[in-house]
């Protein structure tokens, strides 16, 4: 019997922007597993989700493919993300890389507890971020290796 190579992840990547939110386990640039956080209001699909608990947080999960999951979190996506990231950090002990584009995200600072310590942190805001908010982000996210901050102001 021939063995199938198993990818050993090297990083946890978090992407947060207005259009998509996901957490990926990566080996280099290759995605090993992906959790998409969505606001799925389709009544027909609701019966496909199963209730689950992650780090003590109730989540609704839809398995899309073997290593792709969709988490329905319409009201507080940051709570589901924090639970999943915490679980992955506990299990895999991997560094975080975060891509955060807060444009048009209501109260975007609520996402900061998802990634308090990152190996790499990329913050790109083209609108709606004050100097005080940017300072708050810089003061509250510990970056171990590389930080990038861009605002249009």
Polypeptide structure, described:
The chain has 153 residues and is an alpha/beta fold. The chain has one domain. 20% of the residues lie in helices and 42% in strands. The chain is built from three helices and nine strands. A nine-stranded mixed sheet has the order 4-5-6-3-2-1-7-8-9. Strand 5 and strand 6 form a beta hairpin. The relative contact order is 0.17. The N terminus is likely disordered.
Helices and strands, with pairings:
Elements: E1 11-16, E2 21-27, E3 30-38, H1 43-46, E4 50-54, E5 57-65, E6 68-72, H2 77-92, E7 96-100, E8 117-125, H3 131-140, E9 142-151
Parallel strand pairs: 1-7, 3-6, 7-8, 8-9
Antiparallel strand pairs: 1-2, 2-3, 4-5, 5-6
Spell out the key features of this protein.
disordered N terminus; 153 residues; nine-stranded mixed β-sheet; DUF38 domain-containing protein; alpha/beta; globular
Q: What is the approximate shape?
A: globular
Q: What is the radius of gyration?
A: 16 Å
Proportion of β residues?
35-45%
Tally of DSSP helical segments: 3
**Elements, N to C (H/E):** EEEHEEEHEEHE
Helix content: 10-25%
Low-confidence stretches: 1-5
Cα end-to-end separation:
60 Å
| Total domain count | 1
Largest sheet: 9 strands, mixed
Kindly state the number of beta strands.
9
- The chain-level mean pLDDT equals 91
Helix vs. strand class: alpha/beta
Biggest sheet, spatial arrangement of strands: 4-5-6-3-2-1-7-8-9
Protein name: DUF38 domain-containing protein
